[in-house]
Design goal:
single chain, 484 residues, alpha+beta, 2 domains, 4-stranded antiparallel sheet, rod-shaped
């Protein structure tokens, strides 16, 4: 081997070692960055001993896709469960203190007390006051649900804007990858940025990806709708300024294709958009329907009856009074419009004794025809009707036949069951997301100990190359001295 060849080999080795050291140093610097993928400096040798360094990323497409799916599931489930907590507190209060079930239980107690002493009109006034609390619980619950749906719309609008922004950033990163791939430059940083954006996108919608020539990536949703291909597809949504019971929410569109909240019950959702849609149009709407059925049950239970006369509204009334709402049929918004009949309310000039005697709808409906002060049959009958099974609309999620008091309790049980399942799903999916991220990090992330060991090896390589150059330099100096 000539001295010039030896010198060239040593120089090539020093240059390669310098690039390797730079890669390892970068790995160490970004060891704590969860979106950084470890680089490897691959050295290839060519004749006569020259070395070339190619930088590669330790990517794992399978683990990365699994992590995207887990992130999407966790994000949707987290949004769903967090929203349920807020909804429960807004409608039912702490420990269900402001729930219709609690208010109806208090109404039953007031009725029972009045029935024991029907001549005491102060107890009759207490029943009317308890009825007002029931009405207030239903009215405020309806308002809380509709406010919650409006708030969910606002969150959906924000999420859609964020998603459009992420897709725009993804376009820039994807262009950088394509351009660098075509020119043969290192695109590791651009690939890291693109993957990081993909993780954020998957938090909003479940995604699938495939890569074309020049590392060009295409993103589709779980159901196959194109989300990004060369350019981002438009994600649109128009929030509602307010909601009333039974009003459907507006749809989110991706490239003019409607986004689905997913299939299955109210405890699962993939992606934040699906989670918020399920809250707005699933859980909240079902709770509203249950409140409306409770209101209908109360109006029916306290209706005044008379031979050869249609049943007419009694203590509780509504906009369709004096008629009674149809049996077993949901009336949207009834919980928001139910009120205490003024004929019974002393603060409105009414007489609470009508609860004992009947006759709010005329003489034909008077039950205490003898005018007895100890007459309690009507009061006892109202109490019994609250526990008497009646027909409820099965679309409200509660199929068990029961009285209105039990139905109100079952509504709380339904919600608690859904929330508990959502909590379990959230915990499970959080664990899956954490484990998939850990597996991905273990396979593609940076191990400081490994990198420091590699740095020591590179130091030794550098010392050997430097020693070789010194030796060649000494030989050249000796040769020149001999020639001189």
């Amino acid at each position: 081997m000539s001295l010039s060849s030896a010198l060239s080999i040593a120089q090539s080795a020093l240059l390669a070692t310098s690039k390797q050291t730079s890669v390892v140093s970068r790995n160490v610097a970004d060891a704590s960055n969860p979106d950084y993928t470890r680089r490897i400096a691959v050295v290839t040798s060519t004749a006569p001993g020259a070395r070339m360094v190619e930088i590669q990323r330790t990517a794992n497409d399978l683990l990365f896709r699994q992590n995207l799916q887990a992130l999407s599931a966790w994000s949707g489930q987290s949004a769903l469960y967090d929203g349920m907590d807020q909804l429960d507190l807004s409608v039912n209060g702490v420990d269900n203190a402001s729930s219709p079930s609690t208010a109806i239980a208090n109404l039953q107690k007031a009725l029972q007390l009045y029935a024991t002493t029907p001549s005491n009109q102060n107890l009759g006034t207490s029943v009317v006051d308890a009825a007002k609390q029931v009405v207030n619980s239903l009215n405020s619950g309806t308002k809380a649900i509709q406010d919650f749906r409006t708030q969910a719309d606002s969150q959906l609008a924000t999420a859609v804007n964020d998603l459009n922004s992420l897709l725009s950033q993804f376009q820039d990163a994807n262009r950088a990858v394509i351009s660098g791939t075509r020119s043969g430059t290192d695109v590791s940083d651009a690939l890291d940025q693109r993957d990081a954006l993909l993780k954020k996108i998957s938090e909003y919608v479940p995604v699938s990806t495939f890569t074309r020539g020049d590392n060009d990536m295409v993103i589709t949703t779980k159901d196959g709708t194109t989300l990004f291909e060369t350019v981002p597809r438009s994600v649109t949504f128009t929030p509602s300024s307010g909601y009333s019971a039974g009003t459907p929410g507006n749809t989110i569109y991706i490239d003019n294709v409607p986004v689905s909240a997913g299939t299955g019950d109210n405890t699962t959702a993939d992606g934040k958009l699906a989670g918020l849609l399920k809250l707005r149009d699933g859980v909240a709407s079902t709770m509203q329907s249950q409140l409306d059925e409770i209101a209908r049950g109360l109006i029916t239970a306290f209706a005044e009856t008379a031979p050869s006369q249609p049943n007419a509204t009694g203590l509780f009334t509504w906009s369709g009074a004096p008629a009674i709402p149809p049996a077993g049929t949901l009336v949207d918004g009834l919980a928001g419009s139910i009120s205490v009949n003024a004929a019974f309310d002393p603060s409105a000039g009414g007489n609470p004794a009508l609860l004992r005697d009947g006759g709010a709808n005329g003489v034909a409906y008077v039950a205490n025809t003898g005018g007895g002060a100890s007459y309690a049959d009507l009061l006892i009958g109202y109490g019994n009707k609250l526990d008497q099974p009646m027909a409820f609309d099965t679309s409200t999620g509660i199929a068990v036949s029961s009285g209105v008091s039990d139905y109100a309790a079952n509504a709380i049980g339904w919600f608690e069951g859904v929330r508990q399942q959502a909590s379990t799903n959230a915990d499970n999916k959080q664990a899956l997301a954490a484990r998939s991220a850990e597996a991905l990090s273990n396979d593609t992330g940076v191990n400081i100990d490994q990198e420091m060991s590699l740095l020591l090896d590179l130091e030794h390589t550098y010392q050997a190359s430097a020693h070789m150059m010194k030796t060649v330099g000494d030989m050249l100096d000796s040769l020149l001295a001999a020639v001189g």
